[in-house]
Fold Flavin-dependent monooxygenase.
Amino acid sequence: MRLQEKTKTHSVQLRDPHKDMLAGIQKLAPSIKARAAEMEAARCVSPDIVERLKAIGIFRMFVPRSHGGLELDFPAGMEVIRALARLDGSIGWITVVAGASSLFVAASRPELYKRIYQDGPDTAICGSSQPGGTAERVDGGYRVKGRWPFVSGCTHAEWIGGFCIVTENGKPIPGAQGKPQVRVVALPARDWEIEDTWHAAGLKGTASHHVTLKETLVPEADFIDLEAGPQQPGPLYQAVRQWLPLVHGAVTVGMAEGAVDELLALADTGRQQLYAAVPMRESETFHYELGRISADLAAARAFQEAQAASHWRHAVSGTLNDEDLVIEGARSATWLATTCVRIADACFALAGSSAVYDTSPLQRRLRDLHVAAQHAHAQQRQYVDIGKLALRRSTAHAG
């Protein structure tokens, strides 16, 4: 009996949380696909789906093991994001928020970190990285007020954070490189007011509303200083900015994979478009375009995986906190967004008139990807810094 018990315990210890998460996602897939339109109409993810995502572990995937989290390797986390985005864009997006939020709050002081995770590692956190608020220095802390946009997942969040410009006597306090000093205020969700503003073209199920905070005295302990350095040990927590473009790249690739899945499913129905000589599956025009789409998708997937692996190697070796790596990440996010939008556009065009109806998942994929590509991490202006980096490296190599 003792030997059996020992063997059973040993087998549990050897379980792979990453593989368990992917298996859990496959079990949840039919529910997500069946209810995608329902969640889009509600403009939020259904509470019971949120609870099932918690059970899978998406809210704890980047939480340290010391606090009950899974602390997945970064590339493994990207695979989880891609798998969920492949099922539904909004689900993938809130998974990105869950992962990125865990990385942000890992920079908080121990007392705040303990409060955030006092009920366990599955705490749902969200926030806005736009400096929509001000934090005026006063005795006892800061007087905070503001209005923040694009707070994805705020309807199911338990904690919300907002970037604030720190002021004194009404004037911004200079920070690094002469820019205004910025701090993140983190408070329980009950302290924020949600404005019903998320009426958008795509990613409708993300509940990316505005949140507001009326003038509130907040102690110093409830602020996160991202410039102060890591507060948690381990490769994941050395820096935050370097990771953010990469999580965006993972979700766009996942959504593009989903668009191709929808196109293939349509072809499998035997559909024959008006005036077409043969069904889609037998059309050489369809074969040709599908071949181009498949090549684009394979290239996007390979680039996303290579960039995640490269950043992870830097993290493991302790060299992640490098501005050049922010630019490298921006390069991948921008190119991936452009490529994945092109994939969705091509899938939509190949599907013909059937794709224009709300009942077609392809039109939702198209809208979701176009909205995701509007994100700051994927803007074409990023190529300016990318080009400068290429020139700088070329000069250094020549020298």
